[in-house]
Design goal:
Strand content: 15-25%
CATH topology of the largest domain: TIM Barrel
Structural class: alpha/beta
Helix content: 25-40%
Shape: globular
CATH architecture of the largest domain: Alpha-Beta Barrel
């Protein structure tokens, strides 16, 4: 049974956490937290997402807070470092926040960043990780097919593990995959799965699937998606607090196979968190455990009253849709 709206709101806490550096165009990450019978859970769709999309995030939050998690196959999750679109000379500073990580995901194709900037940033990451490190890139669907091909040929000398969502549409991904077959760079889908009306349509066009618990409607929905795709899966975060990251860690632990390091080390991008011991990478991994927010930190990073009202209204609207 779904909890009633007032049950959700009875424990609602809304936080606004500062970030270490601008990422995904924001410098403060807002999130709504609730406490359910199974523990604390998180509802944090980005503000620009409409209610029809946000309802999956609420379903995920309710599942994690009100239902036991599936059986787990591991107790810790290897994670990648995440490098925002920073100048190349800042790469060592960013990587230092991810101790022990052997893999780095590098943001490329961001507004205001040129291909030359991207090449320099990726080259700096490769130099920092060495020949045995793994470097993947994420374009967030910013390129058309021609731009993507040109970029991948320029970036290929850095030995890419895969490219995440280089283009927006599935037909574009499919065309690009054929154009750069000689480069042998696997193509991964993120937005083509989590923001698509027919996510399964991407299966034939990609080599790797990115699954995120909250945007896909919960751990069980994401597990089902990964199984249907029949492709290697990478579990990633949506710039969550440690509460949301714990949900992602349980998803990654429930996957039978986990061939890639996961994008669940992003607490390192936050300048503050809601727990005393955040799920930060240690020796390149995070533990699989539920976390309990600190009352003092919830108060310290409480969002302004107008933002609390905004999130309260959003919970009411999305809970009505979920019903």
């Amino acid at each position: 049974m779904l909890p009633e709206t007032e049950d959700l709101l009875s424990t609602l806490r809304v936080v606004a956490l500062p970030m270490v550096t601008r990422f995904r165009g924001i410098t403060v990450r807002e999130a709504a937290l609730f406490e359910g019978p199974e523990g604390w859970t998180e509802f944090a769709p980005f503000p620009e997402y409409g209610d029809a999309e946000a309802v999956r995030w609420l379903a995920a939050a309710i599942e994690y807070g009100w239902s036991p998690t599936p059986a787990l196959h591991r107790t810790e999750i290897p994670v990648n470092a995440t490098v925002p679109a920073v100048p190349a000379d800042r790469v060592p500073e960013v990587l230092a926040r991810f101790p022990g990580c052997r893999t780095a995901k590098v943001k490329v194709a961001e507004p205001g960043s040129t291909l030359a900037d991207d090449v320099a940033r990726v080259r700096a990451v490769r130099a920092a990780l060495g020949a045995l490190g793994r470097v993947r890139i994420d374009a967030n669907a910013a390129w058309n097919v021609d731009e993507a091909e040109r970029a991948l040929r320029a970036l290929a000398p850095s030995d890419l593990e895969y490219v995440e969502q280089p283009c927006a549409s599935v037909p574009e991904l499919d065309e690009l995959r054929h154009r750069v077959k000689d480069l042998r760079i696997p193509i991964a889908a993120d937005e083509s799965i989590r923001r698509a009306e027919r996510p399964d349509a991407a299966a034939a066009a990609v080599d790797v699937v990115i699954v995120k618990a909250a945007p896909l409607g919960g751990i069980r929905a994401a597990l089902g998606m990964a199984q249907r795709f029949g492709r290697p899966a990478v579990v990633s975060s949506a710039l969550d607090t440690s509460v949301g990251l714990s949900m992602g860690a349980h998803l990654a632990a429930a996957l039978p196979r986990l061939p890639y390091d996961c994008g669940l080390g992003t607490a390192a991008l936050l300048a503050a968190d809601v727990v005393e011991e955040p799920l930060l990478p240690v020796d390149g991994a995070i533990p699989v455990r539920r976390v309990v927010p600190s009352a003092a930190l919830l108060d310290r990073w409480a969002a302004p009253a107008d933002r609390v009202a905004w999130w309260t209204d959003r919970v009411r609207r999305t809970r009505a849709l979920l019903a």
